[in-house]
Amino acid sequence: MIDRAARDQLSRNLRRLIAGAITNDQFERHTLVSDEDAAILAITDMAWLLYSDMKEHRLVGRHSIAPLWSREVLRWVLFLDGDFEYRWPEISLPGLPPMQRARPVVTRWLSGRNAISHERAAEFLAAGDYNAWPFISRSDYKHALRHPRRLAGRSRSSQTEQLGN
Q: I want to staple 115 with a disulfide (CB 3.0 to 4.6 A). Which of 14, 68, 85, 103 is the partner?
């Protein structure tokens, strides 16, 4: 289920966070957690990797994120702004490469919550095109790029049709 209010708020807060307009603590305080929308849980889980939670700071200067991460976050924002259901299986930190985190059972406890089994990683990767995450497929991602909700305004022809001209 899509929780539009929670998605809009997380989208806005992510944009403000990476622009340095709010601090990491403000981001955490003002981001809704929605148990109804799996995308909120997955993307909020990933957002935690953007900053240190040891002290309050903005993502500017020495705390700024790499351009690669900025592009990732913008893809998350595009997903949040759209009306796509989140269809990936549930794992912690889904935006981190699952196979790089796969560990044998005997050593998994040493790696903490980031470690997952090889089977779980394979199941997750089989669900869709991982390079498009949080979109399930490259075609969904491309569709969202062509039809962004946030930038969607009425075209000149639709305005003319409504005026009866």
A: 103
pTM (two decimals): 0.81
Comparing CA positions, the residue from 69, 68, 23, 27 lying closest to residue 44 is 27
Q: Is residue 129 part of a domain?
A: no
Angle between helix 4-18 and helix 38-47 axes, rounded to 10 deg: 20
Tokens 């990936």 locate to: 88
Q: How many CB atoms lie within 10 A of CB 34?
A: 19
Please write the tens of the pLDDT for every residue from 29-69. 999 888 899 999 999 999 988 998 899 999 999 999 999 99
Residue 68 domain boundaries: 1-88
Establish if 93 belongs to a structural domain: no
Cα separation of 149 and 42, whole Å? 21
The domain tally of the chain equals 1
Q: DSSP letter for 150, please.
A: T
Q: Is 22 exposed, middle or buried (0-12, 13-18, 19+ CB in 10 A)?
A: buried
